[in-house]
Amino acid sequence: MPIDEYSHYFSNGDVKIHYHLYGQGPALVLVHGHPDNEMTFSMQIEEFSKDHTLILPTLRGYPPSDVPLDPEAYDGNVMASDLVALLDHLKIEKAVFAGGDVGGITVQKLAFLHPERLSGLVIFNTPILGTMMHLIHHDPEQQELSKYSLKYIKHNPGDAYDVDFVCRTITDPEYRAEIKEYLQNSPEGGMFYFFRKNFPAPPYGQNIDTSGMRYKMPCVVIWGMQEPYFSDKMLDGFYKWFDQSVRVVVLPQAGHWPWREDARKVNYELRSWLTALESGQL
């Protein structure tokens, strides 16, 4: 069937947001990052729509969702509220949320603000936020790895930017070409405003209060070890942020997009964890 048959919209305030909806069963929400869109999770649709209500939202700032040109519209708390509005729209009390990159930050914000709406949390190659706040301010390696973000933070809507640079770590040439075309046909301002509002920037050396950055639901961290943006130190002492069970899966040959770069293993590991979660074993 044409993919448009799965395409829907909801609103959070005056912002209209797009999503795809598949299957029936417990709700599983997969949230994309930058520079992706919701179809980055195309390799998960068949597997998880068999027995889940699978929901793929397109974040604000990423067409066909609305692109408000106001930096405040991309505050992490505001973007987390979009996910609450999505659940309310679908009359779903709680769901498992999974996210990578920008989506990974957004689902973590949701977990901190509205833990009652999450039955579980999946973090794909995204900074564990409490650890990241320490590393970015005090670790020279992470500061070096994060230099790419400074261009994004300074970007204003309409400024020229290098699409090849933005897409450089997408390892699949065919998919990289698809995303380049998507970016070339999309306004970029909202995408970069997210970095301005949520990504730490110099002056570094600050001590950030991370006491609220705890996870109160069962979690799994799925991490491609060929990660180009975040230090391996992100996994050091990871357990201290988690109040319930946390499973960590490392994939030695995958990078920033493990759900695409090693989809078979990711689907297996995610299925294993979901089965344990939904049977009450976690």
From TrEMBL:
Keywords: Hydrolase. GO terms for molecular function: hydrolase activity. Residues 26-258 form the AB hydrolase-1 domain. Pfam families: Abhydrolase_1. GO terms for cellular component: membrane. This is AB hydrolase-1 domain-containing protein. It comes from Trichoderma gamsii.
